[in-house]
Amino acid sequence: CGLLRHRQAGGAAAGGAYWVDSQQKRYVPVKGDHVIGIVTAKAGDVFKLDVGGSEQASLSYLAFEGATKRNRPNVQVGDLIYGQFLVANKDMEPEMVCIDSSGRSSGMGIIGQDGFLFKVSLGLVRKLLAPKCEIIQELSQLYPFELVLGMNGRIWVKAKTVQQTLIIVNILEACEYMTAEQRKQALARLSGN
Amino acid sequence: MKATPLSNCERRFLLRAIEERKRLGGRQCYDYRNVRISFGADYGCCIVELGKTRVLAQVSCELVPPKPNRPTEGILFFNLELSPMAAPGFEPGRQSELLVKLNRLIERCLRNSKCIDTESLCVVAGEKVWQIRLDLHLLNHDGNIIDAASIAGIVALCHFRRPDVSVQGEEVTVYTPEERDPVPLSIHHMPICVSFAFFQQGTYLLVDPSEREECVMDGLLVIAMNKHREICTIQSSGGIMLVQDQVLRCSKITAVKVAEITELIQKALENDQKVRKEGGKFGFAESIPNQKITAFKMESAAVDTNNVEEQAEEIITKADPPSEAFAKPILHTPGTAQIGEGIENSWGDLEESEREEAAEEEGESEAAAFECREMETEDTSTMRETKKDEPIVLSDSEEEEVVILEPQELPKKTRTQTNSKQENTSKKAFNKRRKKKRAAR
């Protein structure tokens, strides 16, 4: 499902083409993108993360704020990491780091133990990342919650109770297909309860 | 492709939620997801959606010689395929354990229960019988494949019509659908599988587990039953110990669920029959609803790209003049002087943000994306108080600066051209405006 597009046969392009523009779900690593990765293996000095791309990304244990050879970060297999790509091209394995260029973590690193991770389309995450996103503002009036958005389509949410977390997860997933009107109605119903 | 691993965070959350009797979609412990049945244009083709899990079933028939040890019975052939589009972990042509298990379950459920009368499939004893072939394709995996597959299978078999046949002595005539109406298969009863997932060594029980719940479950119990409360197949996997009254409780729940689902199937079959008789439109084009993706339409601002040049001029004139250059050179050694403090290398930043723009394919709001980029640059270099003084000191014409950068932009632009035409001109205006704004600060 998506928009059907058409390109006329131009001078350089060979023949016209029809294609369907749809919400993209498959992520391609891009340098500088902040993503949520799942640790799959610890291989010596390097962690292997699954970021939803074709290759697993590597993350050095020194790429955390305040990490030294003696002071290693406490990362287990199955943990969630929020980091950015240092190297991401089609020829090499992608590399991630959890610090920025000045050596500070600026919000990156291991994500806490509670909360819930789920996957949405890439377009929805970009919409949520826009400044002054209505959806997030309306949701924050409902309950307080913590939110981490990864450009690879993964979102981590944590609220006070399991029920609240589930509600937020369901609303975010439904925002894909709801119009602003429907969303406002749904939230009004929830805050009325 | 490898399947996405399950993170500890998800596992913990799901188990906690189950302990509090909460499920992901807001269901109760014994609730099924929405079952939707839609038929295709051919007889014997249907798609069953159980929540987001989708199975396509297709029945076909062929006249073949029978098996030597059963000369008066037709042949049934069942095949379930896990399409790679269903989940990232499925690969084509690989016999995984899951596939074998599912195939065996379907076979036992439909063949051993003798729901289809195979004697009626015989045309000429010992020479010609009908071979009925049921192909099931998994289109999307969101948990509980077996239930969806069993519903799809039995619905397709009920929906299917085989060509009519008449035998005169040795002559066998197969009539085409135009000559004589095709004949439905003779089906005695409809066995339907119901799955139960167990957690915490059998303490908690869920009906119709979703994909996430299946990842954390301890064991699975599948009961195939028909509406007459006859158990056709029962299978327990995962190695958990089940107490007798748990199994009995599950069978009672199964009876209720099967009754509901059978009623739904009957209604769906009747509806389809009615539509076909009245000559209305039938088939997938009618029954599969289209979900509008609102992210596309919502924030697309109409960008007027006609007078981009003039707008750029405006912005330049409105922008503040560059800050006063530090004109105090510091003499380190004879021959080495320093003007200003210099800033960190921003080339990396430029490339990043350019590439991010090239990677964007959606029709987002121009303003939103613009501000996004602004935020990016602000985040990554909070120390950038001193702007690009040096280039500005050298030339006070900002036009020139843009011209220098443009040749770099061009190769990127041709790449994005193939991706999204309508963003092309507006992106150029973007970059111009952005660089000017940055320089103007």
Task: Note down, in words, how this protein is organized.
- Chain A has 193 residues and is α+β, with helices and mostly antiparallel strands.
- Chain A has 4 helices and 11 strands; from the N terminus they run E-E-E-E-E-E-E-E-E-H-H-E-E-H-H.
- In chain A, strand 10 and strand 11 form a beta hairpin.
- In chain A, helix 2 runs parallel beside helix 4.
- The two termini of chain B are 47 Å apart.
Give the percentage of residues in beta strands of chain A.
Answer: 25-35%
Give the quaternary arrangement of the chains. heterodimer
The backbone outline of chain A, from C-alpha atoms, is flat
**Which structural category fits the helices and strands of chain A?**
alpha+beta
Major sheet of chain A: size, sense and barrel closure?
5 strands, mixed, barrel
Protein name (chain A): Exosome complex component RRP40
Subcellular location (chain A): Cytoplasm; Nucleus, Nucleolus
Main location (chain A): cytoplasm
Keywords (chain A): Cytoplasm, Exosome, Nucleus, RNA-binding, rRNA processing
Provide the fold topology.
The complex is a heterodimer of chains A (193) and B (441).
Chain A lengths: L2 E5 L9 E5 L12 E10 L2 E5 L6 E4 L19 E8 L7 E3 L11 E2 L5 E4 L2 H8 L4 H9 L2 E5 L4 E6 L2 H13 L5 H13 L1
Parallel strand pairs in A: 5-7
Antiparallel strand pairs in A: 1-2, 3-4, 3-6, 4-5, 6-7, 6-8, 9-11, 10-11
Helix pairs in contact in A: 2-4
Chain B lengths: L7 H12 L15 E5 L5 E6 L2 E12 L10 E8 L14 H16 L9 E3 L3 E13 L4 H15 L1 E2 L2 E4 L2 E4 L8 E2 L7 E8 L4 E4 L3 H6 L2 E7 L5 E7 L6 H35 L5 H4 L6 H5 L9 H11 L11 E4 L2 E3 L8 H13 L6 H15 L8 H6 L3 H22 L4 H17 L1
Parallel strand pairs in B: 4-6
Antiparallel strand pairs in B: 1-2, 2-3, 3-6, 5-6, 7-10, 8-9, 11-12, 11-13, 13-14, 15-16
Protein name (chain A): Exosome complex component RRP40
Main location (chain A): cytoplasm
Family (chain A): Belongs to the RRP40 family.
